[in-house]
Every structure is written in structure tokens, then in C-alpha cells.
Amino acid sequence: MDTQTNNNIHPVDEVDEFRQQIAQFKQRLDQQEIINDRLMRHTMNARISICTKTNITADAIVLLIMPLAFWIFNRVGISWHVSLFVLLMLIGELTYNVIGHRKLQRLFTDDNDLLTVRRGLLKFKRSNRIQLLITVPLNLLWVLAIFWQLGVFAHTQELILMSIAVFIGLFIGFAQFAWEMHRINNSIREIDDLATE
Amino acid sequence: MNPKEQEFEQVVRTNKATIYTVCYMFSKDQDEVADLFQECLINLWHSWPNFEGRSDVRTWIYRISLNVCVSLDRKKRRHPTIPLTMDINPYEEDNQNSRQMEILRQRINQLSPFDRAIILLWLESMSYDEIGAIVGISAKNVSVRLVRIKEQLKKMK
Fold it and tell me: Cβ–Cβ of B67/A108 closer than 8 Å?
């Protein structure tokens, strides 16, 4: 109750006191070693990792899948037109991911202010959304082309099973997309708020 | 160690309290602080060749550290975490100073990431111009926003 009354009379006193606390806290930290030699060695040898392990794994899988897919397509009698289309799509996605993540890394190490980095992150996420909107119909197209070439449309049971698999894949993709959009919208609100003041 | 590495080590050791304070204000426990602290050091190391000394070294450290703490997804552990060498744990210590710091941290954590950054820089006694340069908004914008943040902080009990 006293604190409340005191706050009403001197509105910034408590917040000003926080400054002293921070100064004392930093004095205590200065007496600590904190950075040991092991951490220093690790720092200087570590690769910057804006790119998560998931991204790296996904890119590696795409790289491995490319020759394997081409070989399987050839074995099951898929025409070279469709094979080439799939291959070009995979190469395109891989290149786009690598370039995107390189730009992202530079954003963090180029001594940018906080707002610039947030805007850059937002741009990166927006371009991911565009990438998804382009790749989903293209992926559907090559799946349908493969269905057609394998003669799946003539066998109802196979068609149903493969359609379910495609539907599950699409559902997972869109769920991830919706979650990403939710996060982007929050960032947009925050940046708009800062820019309009 | 070559001269470039020695110079970097000197800079981060001199400013370790600043880096730790930023990480502490953006974390929920000691493990997360260690994780963020390490990520900040790695980003500072990679940014070091681009640092030309045009801005103050403290401003550069704040920029990189805040960018890491505000922008990176906390759930994704990026590197194996190496423990920090410390005798204190501000989250668990039972003395007056630590308790007050913990209250401050909890209140700051309720603010949006940008507001957290602005109030933290103000608490570090930086000028409005310096805060604006780090965050990317005008000094006037900083002053307007600070009034609002302080009011918010006071209302938190």
C-alpha cells in the first residue's frame, strides 16, 4: 500500500532505482570470470547458425534425393520430361534456401539496428510464403504427372491410397504455413507500431 | 592466438557484464542465459571483421547482442552449450540485490521485445540518440516510447 502511494507521488522513482540495481548487478558480474577458455575456443571455431539443423538436414535430403529420384523414375518408366521437371524444381528450391539463409546470416553480422534486422526477418518470412505458394501447385503438378505416367488413375485402390498420402503431405505443409503466417502477423504489428510513432 | 583473436577476446572480456545483462533480461533461466550468451559471442565473432570502429564498440556489442536475443527463435538450440564460469546465479540467489533484479527481469519480460530493448538501454544510462541508433528509431520516438514503458513497468505488481 505504501509503495503504491509512494508511486503515485513520485511516478518515476521506482524505475529510476532500477538503474542503480543494474549498475550494481554489472559490478558483481565484472568480478566473475564468465568467459572461460573453452567457450572462447568454441566461439572462434563455431559456424554461425541462423540456419537450423532442420534446414541443413532438409537441404541435405534434397541433395541426396535428386540422383535417387532420377534413378527410380528411370527404372519405373517415368518420361524424361517429368524427371527433368522434378529435378529442376528440387535444384530451384535448394538454391533458393541457400541464398535465403546466406542473406539472413549477413543481416545478423552486418552491425544493423534492431528495426532493420526485424524488417529483414520479415522480408525473409514473406519470401518463404511466396515460395510456398509457388511450390505447392508445382509439386501437385508433378505428383499428378507421375500418377498419370504410372497409370494410377486406372486402378481405384492405388489412386485412393496415393491421394490420401498427397492429402496428408499437403495438410502438414499448410499447417506449417498457417503457423508461420501467425508469427509474421505478430511481427508486422510490432514494426508498424514503431514506425508510426 | 593471432592478434585479431586476442583483440576480440579483450573486447568481449571487457564487455562481458553488458552481454550477460542483455541475455539475462531476455531469458527465463540460467541455461537459457548460457545458450544466448554463447550465441551472442559467436555472432560478435563473425561480425568482428565488419566492425570498422565507426560506432562505439559498446554500441556494436549492444546491436549484435540485442539482435540475437530479440530475433532468434529460443526453442531451437543451435550449438551445444558450454557452461559459463560463474559463482553467482541471479535466478536462485537469496539476497536483496538478486531478488530486486529478478523482480525487474520479470517485469521487463512482460514487455514486447522492442520495449524490452529500449528500457534496458535506458537503464544502462544511454542517451536517447544512442538508444535510437541501436534500435533504429528517432531520439524523439525513444523519449515518447520510454514514458509509456515506464508507466507500464510501474503498473506491474
Answer: yes
The residue ranges of every structural domain in chain B are 1-90, 110-157
CA distance A54 to chain B (A): 10
Count CB-CB contacts under 10 A for residue B38: 24
B110-157 classified as CATH 3.40.50: no
- The answer to whether B70 and A114 have CB atoms below 8 angstroms apart is yes
Q: Where are the domains of chain A?
A: 2-41, 51-195
Q: Note the ipTM here.
A: 0.88
Task: Count Cβ atoms below 10 Å from residue A96 Cβ, excluding itself.
Answer: 15
Query: What are B57-93's pLDDT values in tens digits?
Result: 999 999 999 988 887 765 556 667 888 998 888 887 7
Give the model's pLDDT for residue B34: 92
Residues ≥6 apart with Cβ < 8 Å to A148: none
CB contact under 8 A, B135 and A115: yes
Per-residue b or e along A22-50, where b marks 16 or more CB atoms closer than 10 Å to that residue's CB? beebeebbeeeebbeeebbebbbebebbb
**What class is the B1-90 domain?**
mainly alpha
Picking from B20, B46, B137, the nearest residue to A109 by CB comes out as B46
A17-67 pLDDT tens trace: 888 889 999 999 999 999 999 999 988 888 765 555 566 777 788 788 888
Q: For residue A33, which residues of chain B lie inside 8 Å, CB to CB?
A: 85-86
- Alpha carbons within 13 A on the beta-carbon side of B29: 2
